[in-house]
């Protein structure tokens, strides 16, 4: 019988993963990890088999954003040559933060990218429809290594309406272009604040640049996520908000749309 050709440079843990999606931003603090985590859980709610990989060694967010009962890493029972992913509400997760027990990763780029490559490739993701990678901010060693070693289906770029963020988004799109990864959509986070008293959408950071991004780079979809108290409260508590907020909420519907693209 013919065996399937190995992909992702033969990385064992990734052989059963059908699609890999990168969630990226060039700037930190724009809400990239929040989008990555909630996108993964929205996909799970749609009935898909999903995993999330936090590729940020220097500031891993995943251990704060989800709160699994067991956050300890062990060898996988079915294949002891691989690490068992952490499970949380039906989604498989991996982050350097689970291995480092809160210690900082003080290491040079080539060592860091090698470590990230091993961590993603030696995790037993199993058979999976979508693996979401929460990319670290920037366009450095880790990002390039992941882009070169792993077949990424598409990138979701997260930004905020400010010009500073826009300038960096362009760099991110150009990096994915050079890695032959298409940018599927732009998510403009902290797009507006909807006042509960007057129901007006206040554009606190201005009108944003998503239209320019779509026309200049041929990106099909864009989404707007408002500034909401619940978003930061819930991620601080370790609960992805799409799991608890009602499906009728516009925010949750927006995430479902991002997940369905
Ligand atoms: P990044 O991954 O880009 O560094 P994070 O996802 O860690 O950003 O988000 C930074 C902080 O902003 C977190 O505390 C998060 O809860 C908060 N945050 C993100 N998006 C929103 C939003 N739309 N409304 C309110 N707070 C948000």
UniProtKB/TrEMBL annotation:
Keywords: ATP-binding, Iron, Iron-sulfur, Metal-binding, Nucleotide-binding. One of its GO terms (biological process) is iron-sulfur cluster assembly. Belongs to the Mrp/NBP35 ATP-binding proteins family. One of its GO terms (molecular function) is ATP-dependent FeS chaperone activity. The keyword ATP-binding applies. This is Protein mrp homolog. Signal peptide: none annotated. It comes from Stylonychia lemnae.
């Amino acid at each position: 019988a013919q065996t399937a050709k190995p992909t992702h440079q033969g990385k064992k843990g990734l052989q059963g993963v059908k699609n890999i999606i990168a969630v990226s931003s060039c700037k930190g603090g724009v809400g990239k990890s929040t989008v990555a985590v909630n996108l993964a859980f929205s996909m799970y709610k749609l009935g898909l088999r999903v995993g999330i990989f936090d590729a940020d060694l220097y500031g891993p967010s995943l251990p704060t954003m989800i709160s699994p009962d067991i956050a300890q890493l062990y060898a996988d029972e079915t294949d002891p040559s691989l690490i068992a992913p952490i499970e949380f509400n039906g989604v498989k997760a991996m982050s350097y933060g689970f291995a480092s027990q809160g210690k900082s990763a003080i290491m040079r780029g080539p060592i860091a990218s090698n470590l990230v490559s091993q961590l993603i490739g030696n995790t037993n993701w199993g058979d999976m429809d979508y693996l979401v990678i929460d990319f670290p901010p920037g366009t450095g060693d880790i990002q390039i290594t992941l882009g070169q070693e792993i077949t990424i289906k598409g990138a979701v770029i997260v930004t905020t309406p400010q010009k500073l963020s826009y300038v960096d988004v362009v760099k991110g799109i150009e990096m994915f272009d050079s890695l032959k990864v298409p940018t599927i959509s732009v998510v403009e986070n902290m797009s507006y604040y909807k006042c509960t008293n007057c129901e007006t959408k206040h554009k606190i950071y201005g009108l944003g640049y998503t239209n320019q991004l779509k026309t200049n780079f041929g990106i099909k979809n864009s989404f707007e996520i408002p500034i909401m108290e619940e978003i930061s409260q819930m991620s601080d508590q370790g609960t992805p908000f799409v799991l608890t907020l009602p499906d009728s909420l516009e925010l949750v519907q927006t995430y479902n749309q991002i997940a369905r693209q």
